[in-house]
Amino acid sequence: QVQLVESGGGLVQAGGSLRLSCAVSGTNFNNNDMEWHRQAPGKQRELVATITKGNSAIYTDSVKGRFTISRDNAKRTVYLQMNSLKPEDTAVYYCRAWIRVGFDKWGQGTQVTVSS
User: Helix, strand or coil for residue 72?
Assistant: First the structure.
């Protein structure tokens, strides 16, 4: 079965950095477009960043210049490097894999808390 396991979340002060990881198994990772989403309390889940199987990246405006999505196909892992963190970045961050057209898989989420 396809499984995604996020890690790397935690507590950090504003201005600090965290690196999230999403380990993927059960699929040909090289062929999967990957996404990071986040959901803050009382808010809708939002797409934060996308990295395609061709290694092109797209970011939502609020994180441009601060976050970097990357992938290591040999390690079957996608990363989200988060710098200059702000309290408004506080959320549960979820990894999402597009397995094929019409089918996706989500990880369990990892909590990121940014204190002021």
Answer: strand
DSSP β-bridge partners for residue 77: 23, 72
Task: Locate 21 and state its tokens.
Answer: 């990881």
Could you give the CA distance from residue 46 to residue 60 in angstroms, rounded to a whole number? 9
Rounded CA-CA distance 90/43 in Å is: 11
pLDDT at residue number 92? 98
- Residue 20: strand, helix, or coil: strand
Give the other-Cβ count within 10 Å of 42's Cβ: 5
Computed on alpha carbons and rounded to an integer, the radius of gyration of the chain in Å comes to: 13
Alpha-carbon distance of 30 to 74, in angstroms, equals: 9
Query: Tokens in use for 108?
Result: 């369990």
Task: Write the single-letter amino acid at 13.
Answer: Q
pLDDT for residue 106: 98
